[in-house]
Design goal:
This protein is about 25% helix and about 15% strand. With about 200 residues, the chain is an alpha+beta fold. Helix 4 packs across helix 5 (about 75-85). The radius of gyration is 20 Å and the shape is globular.
Amino acid sequence: MVTDETKHYAAGYYGRTPAPIALALRKKLCGGLKPITCRPADLLNPGLAAAAKEIPAGLVKAEEDILSYCLFPEVALGYFKWRAQPEGKRDPIPADQEATAPVAAAPAAAAPASPSAPAASVAAPAGTPVPAPLNGTFYRSAGPGKPELAADGAAVKAGDAVCIVEAMKLFNPIKAPAGGKITFLAKHGEVVVKGQTLAVVS
């Protein structure tokens, strides 16, 4: 599995590498991405104004918010929505949960799941599972306003990128292990754990 960032690095989209990459290795890393030799910035269209239009009205509080959205659209948008809620109605952040959690002297009844905890596993239909290769956040599309990589119930081919798991700001494309009809079990934007079945191909 090669992250999109590594593909673009090998293809020259972050500039020339300190040392040449062996052609056979670069071909493997890039996949279908065409390498470039020009200045990467020359390929970019002005994006600040376009990004600002994509953010729902009222969520931008400072120019830095637009930059955050440009870098990490899904993560930033989730934060903006959380910030826009009245303080008493916001989901608690992990640090607040830890600070206010009582110290239990003995095992207690199971506590309600935190908002950031992975959703309970859904019974998977028969077929080839598409497991999460690592802990992270599950996304059906590459960013807000972008089309889903694969529609629920659509026919996919083995090797097609069907979803993304984001971890530490790296967006890892998850590929279908087999061809057939795909049924998604995870929800867009939810936290998933390594080995969790994200979808099934039947």
